[in-house]
Amino acid sequence: MSANTVEANRNRFRFDDQAAVWLFGYGSLIFKADFPYIERRGAAITGWSRRFWQGSHDHRGTLEAPGRVVTLIESAGSDCKGMAYLVSPEVFEQLDFREKNGYLRFCTDMTFDDCTQARGLVYIATPDNSAFLGPASESEIARQIAAAAGPSGPNADYLLHLAESLRHLGDHDAHVFEIETQLRLALA
Ligand code: BEZ
């Protein structure tokens, strides 16, 4: 699948009669909400794990030196914590463009911090997209992140922001925190 998903996403969902839709964010959407939203709540989705397995040559890297950003990998029984935003459907056009490098919208159930639930959308970069890099050890991932930067800034800033945001949410994401440890060593 081509990494540019703008057209695919436009045809994926019809919002017809919906005035507002919940969007679950697990990566940069947690710390960079540069879109209008009606409401924001801590939330989690079940059956997925966050992994730095997606390549980024448009935001946090270049074609010559791609960075790594997060996607979700199916993982039975795992919870992924993040931030849910209630947005008007028009916001997805803006987000489709921002996250055009391989991310498709999927439907998901989400559980808010107060244990109530809602159905909404989440962006996931699946292994069949051409920018997908897949697994590597946390230290290899940290080395790649340390060396990458793109139009949105250093890849290291993305990782450090995400780790800090997850601490604020009370999440302990072992994968992210181990990369953070390794990255701090690589940058020292
Ligand atoms: C997110 O934070 O949910 C997200 C991350 C990368 C691409 C799209 C969405």
From TrEMBL:
Q: Which residues form the signal peptide?
A: none
Keywords (alphabetical) are:
Lyase
Q: What is its EC number?
A: 4.3.2.7
One Pfam match: ChaC
Q: Does the keyword Lyase apply?
A: yes
Q: State the coiled-coil residue ranges.
A: none
Source organism, top-level taxon: Bacteria
Name of the molecule in the record: glutathione-specific gamma-glutamylcyclotransferase
